[in-house]
Amino acid sequence: MKNSYKFFRNTECIYFPCHQGVDAEKFNCLFCYCPLYFLGDQCGGHFEYVGKTKKIKNCANCPIPHEVNGYNTIITKLKTLIHQD
Asked: How many other C-beta atoms are found inside a 10 Å radius of the C-beta of residue 18?
């Protein structure tokens, strides 16, 4: 499979698909936990802060890591951050 390192789908996961709005046939599970989570409001995704203190980041409405081009989006963002002084 071409670019297989960019894509993994686990249809046997009890949460599959864990996000709505992404075609199940193209759903990418590679970034089950988004590596951009630690960026807080600078991640570029669709999230909201929840809880009493509004400090818990809820990414349930963010399909970016699971979309077809999600791998490229995340790697590009990480490369940009790594090269910042």
From this structure: 16
What is the spatial distance between Cα 72 and Cα 63, in angstroms, rounded to a whole number? 14
Identify the pLDDT of residue 19: 87
Q: How many domains does the chain have?
A: 1
| 34 close to 74: Cβ distance less than 8 angstroms | yes
Residue 4 clears pLDDT 90, i.e. is over it: no
Burial class (CB in 10 A: 0-12, 13-18, 19+), 31: middle
How far apart CA 61 and CA 70 sit, in angstroms, is 14
Residues of the domain holding 54: 4-82
Q: What is the reported pLDDT for 83?
A: 80
Both tokens of residue 83?
């090269």
Residue 57: count of CB within 10 angstroms of its CB: 19
Global pTM reads: 0.80
Question: In the structure encoding, which two tokens stand for residue 24, read together?
Answer: 């199940």
